[in-house]
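Lab meeting, item 3. Inverse folding demo.
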């Protein structure tokens, strides 16, 4: 199928989140390949009951030949966009950005509904083999296409690893920025000159909590540097000696890639579904929430400059390998596959081990959702509602896995 006009839908072109970042990158990439991007934002179609008809009209007016949806976490909007695309008779592809976590880790009771609706799409683009296997188990064409970030560290060659740690991200609970400060606090008992560079903004309550924590601890005031959101992060990456990631989950994590561009070893909380922190890639995973373990790894790196440099070189090579992925070939494969009948698709087969790993990750993230619900809602029937929704969904997936 020779698509020319590719419509892309995402929520807010002015946002700095990962979804918008990837969608914006995709616009330029498609244009460079000779396609004609058709950009549609929330401002174009709205979010009320007339969304589907407005989107249908826009798709017809602009001659869109395929739709890529970049915000798949609102069931009502997703259903409306899917309906509009199929009314026009063009394939509808979901770009799934967050493994399973964005939705479930917020305690959402919409897991079964959202994932089921996504599986109704003509195809799903994922960021890792984990969720690729998951959607293939569900009977949906799926293809893992990792993002390819432009090399913002081009020409830089690291000669030293100062005892400065860089943390990049939104200042929200799920990123655990307070843990980063606490890790530094623990590290300074071994590496007395260690400093933390925090780049990003976010929830005012979280920002206030971080400010109060540092203000109440005079020994940290000169060691924690909070720079807010920065468009140009290169100077901070150049001045750092290691990267730190304290998130509960990530869909891909552009910040890790940027740290690796700068030849920085990365210490991260365990997220086994992320290829960017696999063993042997200049990254170290410690158990979720284990402040002591993270500080210990950083101390060992800083106490051994040769090893720190070696891990930094591995990190850079890991980025270079990632950037060598042939994105154009992957998209052409996806587009060609959409021309085939479902039964002839090459994007449905899955490795049993990958499928089991995907279900393990799904269950772990479901547990995060249960914990969120317990925090927010005390009523027993509400908790049971979420558990029942997840349970029914798991039964369906389990039956599919059991098929020969």
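The presenter then showed the designed sequence:
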């Amino acid at each position: 199928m020779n698509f020319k006009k590719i419509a892309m839908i995402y929520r807010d072109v002015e946002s700095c989140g990962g979804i918008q970042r990837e969608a914006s990158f995709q616009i330029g990439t498609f244009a460079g390949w000779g396609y004609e991007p058709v950009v549609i934002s929330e401002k174009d179609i709205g979010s009320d009951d007339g969304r589907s008809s407005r989107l249908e009209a826009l798709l017809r007016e602009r001659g869109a030949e395929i739709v890529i949806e970049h915000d798949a976490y609102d069931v009502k909007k997703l259903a409306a966009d899917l309906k509009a695309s199929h009314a026009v008779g063009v394939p509808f592809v979901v770009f799934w950005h967050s493994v399973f976590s964005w939705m479930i880790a917020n305690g959402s009771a919409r897991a079964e509904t959202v994932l089921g609706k996504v599986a109704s799409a003509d195809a799903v683009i994922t960021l890792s083999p984990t969720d690729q296997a998951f959607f293939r188990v569900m009977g949906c064409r799926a293809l893992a296409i990792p993002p390819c970030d432009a090399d913002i560290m081009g020409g830089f060659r690291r000669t030293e690893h100062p005892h400065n740690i860089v943390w990049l991200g939104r200042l929200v609970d799920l990123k655990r920025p307070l843990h980063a400060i606490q890790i530094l606090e623990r590290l300074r008992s071994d590496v007395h000159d260690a400093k933390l560079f925090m780049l990003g903004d976010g929830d005012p309550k979280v920002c206030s909590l971080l400010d109060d924590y540092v203000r109440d601890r005079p020994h940290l005031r000169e060691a924690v540097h909070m720079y807010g959101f920065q468009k140009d992060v290169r100077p901070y990456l150049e001045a750092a000696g290691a990267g730190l990631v304290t998130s509960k989950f990530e869909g891909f994590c552009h910040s890790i890639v940027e740290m690796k561009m700068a030849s920085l070893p990365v210490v991260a909380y365990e997220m086994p579904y992320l290829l960017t922190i696999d063993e042997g890639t200049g990254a170290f995973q410690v158990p979720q929430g284990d402040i002591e373990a993270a500080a210990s790894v950083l101390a060992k790196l800083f106490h051994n400059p040769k090893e720190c440099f070696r891990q930094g070189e591995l990190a850079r090579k890991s980025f270079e390998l990632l950037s060598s992925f042939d994105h154009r070939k992957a998209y052409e494969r996806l587009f060609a596959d959409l021309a085939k009948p479902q039964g002839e698709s090459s994007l449905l087969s899955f490795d049993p081990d990958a499928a089991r790993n995907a279900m393990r990750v799904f269950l772990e993230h479901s547990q995060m959702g249960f914990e969120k619900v317990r925090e927010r809602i005390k009523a027993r029937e509400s908790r049971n509602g979420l558990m029942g929704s997840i349970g029914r969904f798991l039964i369906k997936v389990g039956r599919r896995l059991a098929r020969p």
